């Protein structure tokens, strides 16, 4: 039985990887006719990163001569219309082993980052939380547990929203074992972070005995639903290790601003940039040499984890992303308005590019390997 399960897992992983690679090959073939002639994987000075490694204000896409814009998928330049499917292929491939790989990649430190992230937000008082790119439920479960354990709050509600059905299924299987299952405190929804009103249809189960079927060890999972997130309907918007995979980060931020109530908080936990001389080079070497190999050993999927490493490097610097949050309409921590409403600056964080307007706007964790950004809608 164990051998059969192992073979099945390998077969599913291989199928997902092949599909993702076929999509990547097709998208790159299409992109060659509409983009400037750059070698795949080669840094292009006209792309989102400038020659000194910093990012522009909105680094996700650029226009091509053929009309359709291009964006980055790791180090590849691909047509804008292809990135969603490519990213979906990556996370469908890694969904079943995502938590195990996070533990291996960070030696368990990602759990401490997430604990700190939620503890700082301190959810309570029956608020409505939207956890975008909620995936396997790591943040959503922590939000509910914190409200209950620290404040005896069983009224706070969390909606886990993700564009990837496989990741949401993994979250459903995890949360089905908790006291929040089948209560008003927890919902799962298919959705696109760039347009939270866009309707996404739930894919049918692959077979009558797959996702929706119950077994002694697997609870029956309800169909995934679409929820249209209304204007000013959310108190807390969280997104953890997900925003760097979005095609248009500026659209994600504007949608977050739209759905938050006045006084609501946007909170993002994402990989940042290590800004310690020597350590940054060491971390980059470790990321490229070790992390994809761990993916190959633990998940039989080197390619997906190579993309994850590359996507981290393509994400904006801490000051650049703070400026993007401000440009979306949010007040940054430490600004007079945010300070007045209880969002103080992080005193140890100063912008290394000389822009004092973003001083104290983020919190680096583990020397900047991970970073927390916040913004308040007023």
Automatic annotation (TrEMBL):
Catalytic activity from the UniProt record: a 2-methoxy-6-(all-trans-polyprenyl)benzene-1,4-diol + S-adenosyl-L-methionine = a 5-methoxy-2-methyl-3-(all-trans-polyprenyl)benzene-1,4-diol + S-adenosyl-L-homocysteine + H(+)
EC number, as in UniProt: 2.1.1.201
Pfam families (alphabetical): Ubie_methyltran (PF01209)
A GO molecular-function annotation: 2-methoxy-6-polyprenyl-1,4-benzoquinol methyltransferase activity
Ranges of compositional bias, category Low complexity: 46-56
Organism, as annotated: Ceraceosorus guamensis
Name this protein carries in UniProt: 2-methoxy-6-polyprenyl-1,4-benzoquinol methylase, mitochondrial
Pathway linked to the protein: Cofactor biosynthesis; ubiquinone biosynthesis
């Amino acid at each position: 039985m164990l051998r059969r399960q192992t073979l099945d897992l390998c077969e599913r992983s291989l199928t997902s990887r092949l599909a993702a690679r076929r999509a990547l090959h097709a998208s790159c073939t299409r992109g060659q006719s509409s983009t400037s002639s750059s070698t795949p994987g080669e840094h292009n000075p006209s792309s989102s990163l400038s020659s000194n490694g910093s990012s522009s204000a909105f680094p996700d896409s650029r226009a091509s001569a053929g009309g359709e814009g291009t964006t980055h998928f790791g180090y590849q330049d691909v047509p804008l219309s292809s990135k969603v499917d490519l990213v979906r292929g990556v996370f469908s491939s890694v969904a079943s082993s995502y938590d195990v790989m996070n533990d291996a990649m960070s030696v368990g430190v990602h759990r401490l980052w997430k604990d700190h992230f939620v503890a700082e937000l301190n959810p309570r008082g029956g608020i409505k939380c939207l956890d975008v790119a909620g995936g396997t439920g790591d943040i959503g479960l922590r939000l509910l547990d914190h409200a209950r354990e620290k404040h005896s709050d069983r009224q706070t509600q969390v909606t886990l929203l993700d564009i990837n059905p496989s990741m949401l299924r993994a979250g459903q299987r995890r949360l089905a074992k908790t006291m929040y299952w089948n209560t008003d405190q927890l919902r799962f929804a298919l959705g696109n972070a760039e347009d939270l009103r866009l309707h996404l249809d739930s894919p049918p189960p692959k077979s009558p005995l797959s996702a929706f079927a119950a077994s002694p060890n697997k609870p029956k999972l309800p169909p995934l639903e679409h929820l249209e997130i209304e204007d000013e309907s959310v108190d807390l918007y969280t997104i953890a290790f997900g925003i760097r995979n979005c095609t248009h980060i500026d659209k994600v931020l504007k949608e977050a601003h739209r759905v938050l109530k006045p006084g609501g908080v946007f909170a993002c936990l994402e990989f940042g940039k290590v800004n310690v001389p020597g350590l940054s080079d060491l971390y980059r070497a470790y990321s490229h040499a070790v992390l994809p190999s761990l993916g190959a050993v633990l998940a039989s999927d080197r390619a997906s984890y190579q993309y994850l490493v590359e996507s981290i490097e393509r994400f904006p610097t801490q000051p650049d992303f703070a400026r993007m949050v401000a440009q979306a309409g949010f007040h940054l921590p430490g600004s007079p308005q945010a300070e007045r409403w209880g969002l103080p600056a992080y005193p140890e964080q100063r912008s290394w590019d000389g822009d004092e307007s973003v001083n104290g706007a983020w919190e680096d964790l583990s020397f900047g390997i991970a970073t927390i950004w916040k913004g308040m809608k007023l």
